[in-house]
Write a structure and sequence with these properties.
This protein is of the alpha+beta class. 16% of the residues lie in helices and 40% in strands. Strands 1, 2, 3, 4, 5, 6, 7, 13, 14, 18, 19, 20 and 21 form a 13-stranded mixed β-sheet that branches. A 3-stranded mixed β-sheet has the order 9-12-11, covered by helices on one side. Strands 16-15-17 form a 3-stranded mixed β-sheet, with helices on one face. Helix 2 packs antiparallel against helix 3.
């Protein structure tokens, strides 16, 4: 059985009786909550304090590298219980304010911006794709690094999430696949399939409104772009006004397609409780990984591949299990964002002046 160990200040403690470790594609940072009924059984001279750097491992595989956030001791006449909660290193990107000399980036990629904002916190950026070159990006005072990184990644249509080393990964949706997938009654104790139409629409319409509509003479017809969802059984339209200029219309059209795809994905959610924390190849289940589903009882297409969005490894009085949330890959595609760079003469003045 995989044991969970916590390494703090050079000492490793195992034997935790309650465990919850959660990682996700949209959960930055990863976090954990572990406890034991006795303070460090069989281990002497171990001190854990809030703020300590730590590493959490499952069976020798690191799953979270970060910091202890909270230590709770509870004692009575018969026992001395301890619980520790912590998060991955990227917690500082979420909690803190972004700092960068001059508060602006010029001709930098999404990876460049992320690396510069993460460096003061001792966080490396692993860029599987660098992203677009952004002519200029200005920080607002009080912006968190993660808010900025998330936006520049959307401009480049990239995802950003934390890995087991506590570093920030920037890249596309993964095509890696969990070995064995999930089969009800084999490695899957329990499964659920939620089909939800409440936030889906039959049509997503984008309207490009020209300035000629504001003139006294002449009438300019509306330019319309429509994306349909044939799986919505009744008339349910949703409309958007395209952002300014031709590029705005293009991005707005992409946004309509994204709205349709994302809502379709988010309307088909599979939850799985697996009997093991590892797949058939012995690899820990990891977010941003595909998994084939064999669950005809839930009326899923046999072998259909969903993306693992969130993984929770847990151990408590009810036993050991892994809870996973999966959705179609399009549910995790980044939202298209219109970026309006400065005019060329202003950008040139910034780079030369």
């Amino acid at each position: 059985m995989d044991d969970v160990s916590l390494t703090v200040n050079g000492s490793t403690v195992a034997g935790w009786t309650t465990v919850r470790v959660t990682r996700g594609m949209e959960r930055i940072p990863a976090d954990f909550d572990i406890g034991m009924a006795e303070r460090y059984p069989g281990v002497a001279d171990v001190t854990v304090s809030a703020g300590d750097p730590c590493t959490l491992a499952i069976g020798g595989d690191t799953v979270i590298t970060g910091y202890v956030d909270r230590v709770i001791d509870q004692i009575d006449a018969h026992s001395h219980a301890l619980s520790i909660a912590g998060r991955g290193k990227c917690e500082d990107l979420v909690d803190c304010a972004a700092q960068y000399d001059g508060f602006q980036f010029v001709n930098a990629t999404a990876a460049d911006i992320a690396a510069a904002l993460a460096k003061p916190f001792g966080i490396a950026v692993k860029a599987l794709a660098p992203g677009l070159v952004i002519p200029q990006y200005i920080l607002n005072v009080g912006d968190t690094p993660y808010a900025v990184i998330d936006r520049v990644c959307k401009i480049s249509q990239l995802l950003c999430y934390e890995d087991a080393d506590g570093d920030l990964v920037i890249g596309p949706l993964s095509t890696d696949e969990a070995a064995g997938g999930f089969t009800l009654g084999v490695n899957c104790e329990r499964a659920g399939y939620t089909r939800d139409l409440s936030q889906r629409f039959s049509e997503y319409r984008v309207y490009l409104v020209g300035t000629a509509l504001l003139l006294d003479t002449g009438i300019q017809p509306l330019s319309e772009y429509t994306v349909t969802d044939p799986c919505v059984p009744r008339y349910r339209p949703r409309a958007f006004i395209a952002e300014t200029n031709d590029a705005g219309a293009t991005v707005s059209n992409q946004h309509a397609q994204w709205e349709c795809n994302r809502r379709t994905g988010r309307g088909n959610v599979v939850t799985v409780t697996a009997s093991s924390w590892r797949d058939a190849a012995g690899t820990l289940y990891t977010p941003n990984t595909l998994a084939a589903l064999s669950m005809p009882q839930l009326k899923l297409i046999d072998g259909q591949k969903f993306t693992i969005g969130e993984v929770t490894c847990r151990r408590d009085s009810s036993g050991t299990a892994c809870d996973l949330t999966l959705m179609p890959p399009q549910a995790f595609q980044p939202e298209p964002v219109l970026y309006l760079p400065l005019p060329q003469d202003a950008t040139a003045a910034l780079t030369t002046g």
